[in-house]
Specification:
Shape: globular
CATH architecture: Beta Barrel
Structural class: mainly beta
Pfam family, one: TonB_dep_Rec_b-barrel
Subcellular location: Cell outer membrane
Number of helices: 6
Protein name: Iron complex outermembrane receptor protein
Helix content: under 10%
Distance between the termini: 56 Å
Family: Belongs to the TonB-dependent receptor family.
CATH topology: Maltoporin, Chain A
Largest sheet: 22 strands, antiparallel, barrel
Oligomer: single chain
Strand content: over 45%
Keywords: Cell outer membrane, Ion transport, Iron, Iron transport, Membrane, Receptor, Signal, TonB box, Transmembrane, Transmembrane beta strand, Transport
Low-confidence stretches: 1-48
CATH superfamily: TonB-dependent receptor, beta-barrel domain
Length: 706
Amino acid sequence: MSILSIAMPRASRWAVAVATACSPLAVHAAAPPDATTLDTIQVRSARPAAAEAERSLTPGGVSIVDGDAFHERAVVQMADALRYVPGVWAVSGTGGDAIFISSRGSNLDATQYDSNGIKLFQDGLPVTTADGSNHNRFPDPLAAREVVVARGANALTYGASNLGGAIDFLSPTARNSPPMQVFVHGGSHGRLGGRLTAGGAAGDFDGLVTLEALGRDGYRAHSRQDRVGLYANAGWRVSDRFDLRLFATHIDNDEQLAGPLTRAQFDADPMQAQPAAITGNFQLNVRTDRLAAKGTWVLDGDSRLEFGLSYEDQDLYHPIVDRVMVDFDGAGPNPPVEVFSLLKNTGQRTLGGMLRYNVRTGDHDVLAGVNLADTRERGGNFRNLAGRRNGRTEAVDNRSDSVEVFLVDRWRFAPDWTLVYGAQGVLAGRDVRTTRLADGALRHPRDDYAAFNPRLGAIYALRPGSEAFASISRLYEAPTTFELEDDVRADGRTLDAMRGTVVEAGLRGSTAALAGRPGWRWDVSVYHARIRDEILSVDDPAAPGTSLSTNVGRTVHAGLEALVGASFPLGDGYRLEPLLGATYNAFAFEDDPFYGDNDLPGAPKYAVRGELMLRSAGGFFAGPTFDLVGARYADFANAYRVGPHRLLGLRAGLERGRWSVFGEVRNLFDEAYVGVLNVRDRAAAGDALLQAGEPRSVYAGVRLRF
């Protein structure tokens, strides 16, 4: 089916979307179909069935991560939290919140500036801006009770059709978590953090508030971070069928950036900062305030309506390019002149909305919904003088909006068979205004994007607790405002949206761990996506740190994702529990006139992360952790290769009633390796591209629940 690209007034787009979303409401309710229930890797405590039920009705890769597991190891940001999720490559350049993240090969361009390709949600409401950017912040995983990762087209039930899929962070409440708890953690590189949670329920009302603070010097020079946050929610049970909940978040995060190194600098001292990062005082400082409201209305035993609104206000202060000085007259009398530097200082406001209706009738389980988002970014680009604003060079006024409408039916048309079919519609607008103050020149790319993205899949129950699945889906992703602003053509034309088709198949299931017999859990997917017009950006040599975006004719994103766990009884209350998350990536150009069939850079060929824990019935656990990461390229020409690395760690802990404690050693043999890398069109040996991964580090934490 062809992708449509049409222009439509924004008010009309919103009206059409709401009307389309409401059309399934005429479906009548009846008896629900059965669904295969599967164990979730990393979930050991009792959990609400909603996320697991949706997963069992999805013909593709979905992972559910238990938030309690984050208190058994050193988790402070998303790369830590998503460690075992296959298909997702997430790593921090210094151990802080500024991370690189890619899902199924999303975001593999030169600067990774906007971290697009994955839609982020909190409690089903959007965090990602309307243009698809995640540049300013990622959610705090320790503030989540559960994290759902729907990779690629499997995010249809969230309304997403982008390459990477969606991640939803579900908040704890006073009704489903300990109302009082304290968590203190710290260790190497000056890390010290604490969280205090207090709340309770009285009749139909409940509330929960968490205060957190984190400080760290960072394992590289110039990588200090200071973060404070407040996370609160309050609920009102209006009736047995109707709940309302309010959410409030405040985050003040200041983070220094160490910058990439050349290979020679890395070999000499991988923990040093890029000299320009110090003289330019590179930082990523974000202040965030968010308010949200969500309602859940159980209409009857077979139908349910969810709706919500969110408003997020962010202020960004981001010195990122040091002064580029040029001596135009060589040894002449005139001093060098600054030709470029960059400090971004903007305010960003996003209004989002969500409506989801689920009805079960006969053998059908129908889900319909709409996501709405509108983002306004205003501020400017400044010259950077050691991290201080040194005169505004450009005024920025960007607007974006998006409407995502989706409808999916899970039809149990025969015993053991479920047919999953549906579609998503996208209506998106981009309006980018950048005014150069020196002469008043205006760059004003703007466009509207629209697409219809069908999906067809099937799930077959092999036996209780085990199933096979397969699907074919359309992928679609409109450009971000950053990509439109930095179009390599710079002639007013706009980039095309990325589009493609993905096929996927896999197996998932579990066997119960009985006395004297092991239990197994597995989730394995293979996928192959052919993409047209993927948007990639290469670094602009005339202005280092900025990017130029372009559409690439054809690319392939394929891979294998596996998450496997087991529990082997050893006697006397002990069991051995291995856990393995493995990813194999095959991301490449296809018959490109410049790059042929070269590999896409940025993501490793493979990544295997696992652990082998010995656990006792008394709450003790201990065992090794390991990372096996393959080679990567740092350029589109495949001329600059970054080798593989192997890491070993140790983890141990004890949980007794109301308290628990853990200790973790990372990179036990202190191997020097590359964590994050920057990408060029054709990299040279002297290019600054490499950021070191974490050296040997020791962390510990204690948690008290009341």
